[in-house]
Design a protein that fits this description.
By secondary structure, the protein is α/β, with parallel strands linked by helices. The protein folds into five domains: about 160 residues, Beta-Lactamase; about 100 residues, 2-Layer Sandwich (Beta-Lactamase), CATH 3.30.450; about 180 residues, Rossmann fold; about 90 residues, Orthogonal Bundle (Helicase, Ruva Protein, domain 3); about 45 residues. Helix content is about 45%, strand content about 20%. The chain is built from 23 helices and 21 strands. β6 and β7 form a beta hairpin. α22 packs across α23. Bound molecules: adenosine-5'-triphosphate. GO terms for molecular function: ATP binding; DNA binding. This is Putative sigma54 specific transcriptional regulator. Pfam families: AAA_lid_14 (PF25601), PAS_9 (PF13426), Sigma54_activat (PF00158). Keywords: ATP-binding, DNA-binding, Nucleotide-binding, Transcription, Transcription regulation.
Amino acid sequence: MIFVAVKRWGVPVTKIDNKGVQQIAETISDVLLLDVTIVDSDLIRVAGTGSYKNRIGERLPPGSGYEFSIKSRQATTINKPGKNQICYSCTKKSECQEKAHMLSPINLNGQVIAIIGITAFTESQKQDLTYAEEKYRSFIKKMSELLADSFSNEQIILEKTKAYAQVSAIVNSVYEGILAVDDYNEVIACNDAVRDLLDIRGDIIGQNVENVVPELPFEGVITTGTSKLGHEQYFSKVGIHCLVNMKPIKMNNKVVGAVATVRDTKEIEKLAFRVSGNTAGFSFNAIISKNNNIKELKEKAKKVSQTDSTVLIRGESGTGKELYARAIHSASPRWKGPFVPVHCGAIPETLLESELFGYESGAFTGAKKGGKIGKFELAEGGTIFLDEIGDMPIHLQTKLLRVMQDGTFERIGSPETIKIDVRVLAATHQPLEEFIEKNKFRRDLFYRLNVVPLFIPALRERREDISLLLNHFLNKYANKLKREQPALSRELMSFLEQYSWPGNVRELENVAEYFININEKGYLDLGDLPKNMKDKLLETQDYQKNVGDDEILPLEELEKRSFEKAVKIYGISEQGKQLMAGKLGVSRATVYRKLKKYGLI
Ligand SMILES: Nc1ncnc2c1ncn2[C@@H]1O[C@H](COP(=O)(O)OP(=O)(O)OP(=O)(O)O)[C@@H](O)[C@H]1O
């Protein structure tokens, strides 16, 4: 190589490669029988013959004839160097031994990149030079041009090599598999990712793609010149499904090849899961309550969120178990990772294992070619929330216990052990302790899950939250549905506060949404209750009597009414009085006294 291109302060300059240039200098010297010096544009001697050979690497003095030639870009003959006008500002002019120089610039792309100089050291050499000046000049000019040409060719090759190296580095740094072919379907590029993904071995550059990766359907892309995007392709050698995008490579509107990007669909699934909002999305602030037990529970959950311990959240359906799980994940150091909820009870037993752990191609009849990634793998780096854990079949409990103990499992149909980093949160409304006695739940798994138990009380056990939550949800749905928030009558509010809320907060939320939907007059009363609740209201016949402060009776009056009813039911025989005493929780003597007091005997 004769030169190398380097960048100085970001500007490309041509640097002479000494070895190749020295050979040329010696050839010129052999032909002309004169000493030769070649200096680069920085005035550094990069080649030299005769006495100059030992001085390669020296910088020529500023103001010398060589500098003049570089600046003027002209061929120059200098007689009597040192004394010549050109050498006027040369710092070493007094030491000059030479009799004459003939200098010729080497121009490349309008830039002087070097100077070839031939030197006469003796008077006879000087005479020869002067005598045949034109011939010498023409010779070294030709040599300069030859050198410039060869520099130029090498520069093109070098630039191509450099560009190729840059493109290869870029292509290999990409996570996606990339494979390109020319218009003869021969492979022209193939990165490391595609090699790993499709298990391509050896050098395949120049080979017909159909012989190496027959499943890549380049044909249509090359013949039609149109892209094929989002194509799902099964690669039998490695047994995986990939998403393939193919684009034609065009030059002057002619298709000269095609490039394909290839990605494992399982990886895309993981990525999509991560970026499509599969974060928990709720913080502890979303848990609304003024109940002291709930406040303590939230504090406990906040503390446990900072660790990786397993939490078993217990409570009736709709109490907010998933909400707590999401808040724990959001407050945990794993918050950037995915939150993957799995409703064990909602997935048929036969599918639950593949849903949780995934499967390999051909693992069972009906298994998707290429297999499927399980929820545990999707939760990598994050949290899996196993809701209704009590519904998990016993054989899966064993597999789950292993994942929880050492973080390993195998996909169905695969011998390969997968290691994962996932935090497990579980929830149930079922009596797991009873399940253990009935051998429906593994005791060891229960202890493993129950490291930190959180019990969420039912809504009826914290009635002070009813009006707070109702208000919150009325407001939420009024905003969401862009409707007015209605006022609720005292009777309606009173009923709602006494209602048993079997569906807990979820039921209350649904009722609030219902109210916003049906509200027309800006005011809701008992008659506006949803049907199931209205039925409940009618069932409790005495209900109406118990509402309204005008209906609150003095205790004495209540007592009198109780005795009147009891007399109607049991009569006033001795046996009747006996039963009455048991029912009213008083002695027989008291029964006798009260009956007399109220004039009932
Ligand atoms: N304290 C609370 N504050 C605000 N919203 C709540 C509260 N508790 C529950 N919710 C809301 O109630 C609804 C039901 O909660 P969630 O789904 O977490 O209950 P769950 O106990 O997991 O139910 P299931 O056992 O049926 O799966 C959700 O919309 C949730 O946001």
